[in-house]
Amino acid sequence: MDEAHSYLDDIAKQRDAALTRADTAEARVKVTEQALFDCIKLSGADTDGATGPDDLGQDVAERAVEEAKRSQHDYDEALGEIAQAEAERDEALATSNELVDHAVEAAETIVHAEIERRAGPLLTENERLREALTFADFARVNKARCEAVDGFGHALGAWSTSDWFLAAIGELGEAANKAKKLNRVRDGIPGNTETTGELISGLAEELADTVIYLDLLTQSLGFDLGEIVTAKFNAKSDEMGFSYKLAAPEDR
């Protein structure tokens, strides 16, 4: 890329130099034309080219003609150099654009490779977490504790769907209350009776209670939380074009 820019700069300098030479040659043409005209007047020549008796003026006029021819030749040569420089510039620009395209493709490849590299360890960690705790394990133990005599002793069917919704939403509301008080801390508003650490810890607990009740609500309706979350997550990933998906419960 740097070489292409340097090449373009060199061509631009060559073109500028050629333009300068062309301007100089054009000025010389005008000067010699004027000198020729003056000599013709001095020599007494008419517009048909007839000369007068002044041989010295005629000699000067002839030299002026030769100088005009040389100036015109230099001018034409400079114009040729300009055309060549412009052609080389166009070729260099095309090469530069091609290099830019290659650079963009290389950058995209690097970005995709970096995404793949970073996603790999995350997937490995997810697999480790699934071995430690799965939706199925959580749902099984959660239901057992809810209905067991040494647990809550509460059958899933003992509550209606709306009862389970109210329980889950109640826990979510308590989490929102903790978040509201944390906003007070952020905005410097007094009135909290709990420390910031206690509020953060409490927020985590209320969110956990919400998930527990949502799982019980899901089971009371005959759904498997792992299955419906996996299906919804993967469907949204397909819609977005995200390449990584959650493993189906039966594949874990």
Model description:
By secondary structure, the chain is mainly α. It folds into 2 domains: 2-123, Four Helix Bundle (Hemerythrin (Met), subunit A) (Up-down Bundle), CATH 1.20.120; 134-251, Orthogonal Bundle (Helix Hairpins). Helix content is 80%, strand content 0%. The chain is built from 6 helices and no strands.
Percent of residues in helices comes to over 70%
What overall geometry do the principal axes of the alpha carbons give?
A: rod-shaped
Strand count = 0
Overall tally of structural domains: 2
Q: Unreliable runs, pLDDT <50, ≥5 residues?
A: 45-53
Radius of gyration: 44 Å
**Annotated CATH topology of the largest domain:** Four Helix Bundle (Hemerythrin (Met), subunit A)
> How would a textbook summarize the main sheet?
none
CATH class of the largest domain: Mainly Alpha
**CATH architecture call of the largest domain:** Up-down Bundle
Number of helices: 6
Q: Tell me, rounded to a whole number, the average pLDDT.
A: 77
Order of helices and strands: HHHHHH
Q: How much of the residues is beta strand, in percent?
A: under 5%
Structural class: mainly alpha
- The rounded distance between the terminal residues' Cα atoms is 49 Å
Task: Describe the protein's topology.
Layout: H1 2-43, H2 55-132, H3 135-147, H4 161-187, H5 196-220, H6 225-240
Compact description:
The chain has 252 residues and is mainly α.
